[in-house]
Amino acid sequence: QVQLVQSGAEVKKPGASVKISCKTSGYTFTTNAIHWVRQAPGQSLEWVGWINTGNGDTKYSQQFQDRVTLSRDTSARIAYMELSSLRSEDTAVFFCAREDYDIWSAHIKFDSWGQGTLVTVSA
Amino acid sequence: DIVMTQSPLTLPVTPGEPASVSCWSSQSLLHTNGYYYLDWYLQKPGQSPQLLIYLGSNRASGVPDRFSGSGSGTDFRLKINRVEAEDVGVYYCMQTLQTPYTFGQGTKLEIK
């Protein structure tokens, strides 16, 4: 079955960077894009961006554009999200989610999610 | 960016009773292909979100038929015919018409 397993919790100081991994299994890695979503404590969900796992193309939310880098390792079937210049407001759980693209409707939906990675930014 | 607004933010429901969540978008979610790009997710306590409804009214695989979605334009609704204890959690609407994809604030369903 499809599984997305994320790396463990991180504690970082303001100004530092964090790199989270999302290890996939149960499907052909390069056929489904991976999206990243942020959830601050007690808050809603924010879309961070996505990566085409086939060709590596990326698209970022403008809110994160200057600080986020999405990448992937196709041989290891892992997607990564790196967020730099961390600040206290970045304290959140970050989720990776697999995109299911329907060619008939040209619609995407997130059909499988990782368990989430808590990033705590504190001096 | 498309702003998504949900109501109510908290929804106390007696088991067996119906429940409804409303979601409004700041612009129409109608794609040129005739589909509405509005999905519903449920985040159960301590879990990751899970897909419930896509394209406004289509139940995802394995979702019980007591869940239904409807709506058009900028006005959408999620209905639960008879709430069960396992339905507790936070319900989010999400638009995927254009990036950045955006979510509503969430509606917390709790059992009375």
Overview of this protein structure:
The complex is a heterodimer of chains A (about 120) and B (about 110). Chain A is mostly beta strands and about 120 residues long. Helix content of chain A is about 0%, strand content about 55%. In chain A, strands 2, 4, 5, 6, 9, 10 and 11 form a seven-stranded mixed beta sheet that branches. Chain A is globular. Chain A starts with a strand and ends with a strand. The model of chain A has no long low-confidence stretch (mean pLDDT about 95). Chain B has about 110 residues and is mainly beta. Helix content of chain B is about 0%, strand content about 50%. Chain B contains no helices and eleven strands. Chain B has strands spanning about 5, 10-15, 20-25, 40-45, 50-55, 60, 65-70, 75-80, 90-95, 100-105, 105-110. In chain B, strands 2, 4, 5, 6, 9, 10 and 11 form a seven-stranded mixed beta sheet that branches. Chain B is globular and about 40 Å long. Chain B starts with a strand and ends with a strand. The model of chain B has no long low-confidence stretch (mean pLDDT about 95). Classes of the chains: A mainly beta (about 120), B mainly beta (about 110). Chains A and B meet through strand 10 of A and strand 5 and strand 10 of B.
Q: Using only CA atoms, what is the Rg of chain A?
A: 14 Å
> N-to-C SSE series of chain A?
EEEEEEEEEEE
Mean residue pLDDT of chain A = 97
Give the uncertain stretches of chain A in residue-range form: none
Order of helices and strands of chain B: EEEEEEEEEEE
- Counting DSSP H or I runs of 4 or more residues, the number of helices of chain B is 0
CA-to-CA gap between the ends of chain A?
A: 40 Å
Report the span from N to C terminus of chain B: 36 Å
Question: What does the main sheet of chain B amount to?
Answer: 7 strands, mixed
Largest interface, C-beta within 8 A: A-B, 23 and 24 residues
| Inertia-based shape of chain B | globular
Helix content of chain A: under 10%
Oligomer: heterodimer
Mean pLDDT of chain B comes to: 97
Count of helix runs of chain A: 0
Give the beta-strand count of chain A. 11
Strand proportion of chain B: over 45%
